[in-house]
Amino acid sequence: MLERWRDALPVGDATPLVTLGEGGTPLVRAERVGRELGIELWFKCEGANPTGSFKDRGMALAVAKAVEQGAHGIVCASTGNTAASAAAYAARAGVRAVIFHPVGAVADAKLAQVRAAGAELVPVEGAFHDAFAAALELAERDAFTMVNSTNPFRLEGQKTAALELIEQLDGPPDVLALPYGGGGNTAAYAKGFGEAGTPLPRILAVEAQRRPDTIASAIRIAEPVHRAAVEAAVEASGGAIASVSDDEILHAWRRLARDEGLLCEPASAASVAGLPALAREGERVVAVLTGHGLKDPDPGARR
What is the DSSP letter of 212? Predict the structure, then answer.
């Protein structure tokens, strides 16, 4: 990805190429679900990235820049996908990674990825914002680079998904639907479309009604870090923020697997569950499936 989009990214001769082959993910036409909704529906399958989620795009650049700048290591707070990605890219770069996570809030499969990559896991009592505060303290104290989406290089890397979409569709879609946890990915897509100079799709940011304890662990974030950026992107695009129930998320999750053959993690299915809130008949719509289903394979068992 760093080589493919070099001209669009803040990289130079001193930036190491830290990559696991991220980017270039499939865009899959949704035949049955799209027909039922009366729209031309496509899925951007970000679970095809190396660690199984969209986080790899931004992490490749954030870790490369951390190495370039001589950081002692990297640190993050996570509900799972950021943790797995940070651990893998730190291992690839040969640097230390410390992961703070809320106790009981992360899917076991994601914790297994972190452990396998050799990163240090630090459980924190409380919610995501408590883990974030602990990670930030370490970053400020010990010269670790924070690689949450507050790191601007994360969003720079993640914007490449928008650039890919424009190439794959020969232009932007009418509507772009994304799960809305912390909001960084929504901000990154808006940035990518803006820099490409194409019209901004109407952005549909879909959150869980019960943010702090939703079954969709990847968006279990009570206080979105990028709330202001999401609201600005939604307003500028004429889009909407939709809230969906856990039952709606699970229904969409099952439909994607049974009707389209796509197993995604529950948070990804939120983007599909929210489509009736904004998509209009006949429009071209892209729903971003942010993570692979094997990252969180059996949400129904926890109901």
Answer: G
